[in-house]
What does this fold into?
Amino acid sequence: METSLSSLKSKDREVVLFFLNTGCAARRNPSAVPAGKPGNRPFVPRVEGLEDRALPSVSPLPHLTAPPATHFKVVVPAHTQAGRPAVGEVIALTASNHRAFGYTGTVQLSDTDTAAHLPATLRFSRFAHGARFFVFTPETGGSDTITATDTGTASITGQATTTVTAAVVTHFQVIGPSHAAVGGASRVTIVALDASNHRVWNYTGTVQLQSSDPAAQLPAQYQFTAQDHGRHTITVTFGTAGAQTLTARDSQDATITGSETTTVAPPAVATQLEVFAVPVARAGRSFQVVVVALDAAGHRVPNYRGTVTITSGDTIATLPGAYMFTASDRGRHAFVVALNSQGEQALTVKDDSSTPLTGTATVYVRAGRTGIGHPYWF
It folds into this structure.
């Protein structure tokens, strides 16, 4: 049976052409297609005029061009504080106020606050997708306007205004440990605050420091810098037990002050020396021995200042001389020794003060060997 392609309706003709081109005619309507002989190729009906048909022409897709940026939208917080960094954003927009994702220009930033800190330019890459964040720090109270302008086309511009509050320091917050020990270093932080207890980020005054502890070690004064952002930490070492007060006061205005109280415990007393050493060493090879001063509860005594000597049953050992602990040791010091006699050798550390202290460690010494290697390889 022959069927004219032109006699079919337009929609039916498209269906026939689709199945003929994909080889699916037999599967689409098997009852209308005679079965082929076994082993033969699948039967494909012949459609009159098929050889004369022409494929429909396809028009190429038009070249799409993203709309260019015509202006900027600058976004900044409505309210900011002088000296405190804030985050703003520059967004490139088209004439219809949609983001210009393809914008890749360079933006120049300017500020009506001549003392403000902000980046001079922002470069937009294709990965920025038309938006860039920036950090600015206003320094003058009042209305502050930030303007963004394209360096190539001055007409592409935008601006935003923020209200800057010039904070005034009214007092200090002194933050220190509630408990400390005599001779132990403590970290104390001083924060400049306004009447609302907000940090004053641009405070650059000089603070005088005083303590009720006459034996305390602390700086007499400190001048805040712009990098402190109204917050600075000092180190204080108390020398007297009991409740001790630390006071911070502005050198120009004595009403700007703050204080905190710390309970200082009596100095810890060393009752024993703990000696740490490697269990096995090579004869003639040097290794470390660590001596730690401990109290009765087994806690390290940071203020230990005793003088210790190291002795050994190895009469030909290489040992350090007497050593006096310092504040930087904080109750712990490492020595270098070398044992030269084989077998089990004892290392004894003694403090021959009015309250003698001792500590011992045992090291098994193997025969030495030649060659270069790590001092702890045995």
User: Anything to note?
Assistant: The chain has a mean pLDDT of 85.
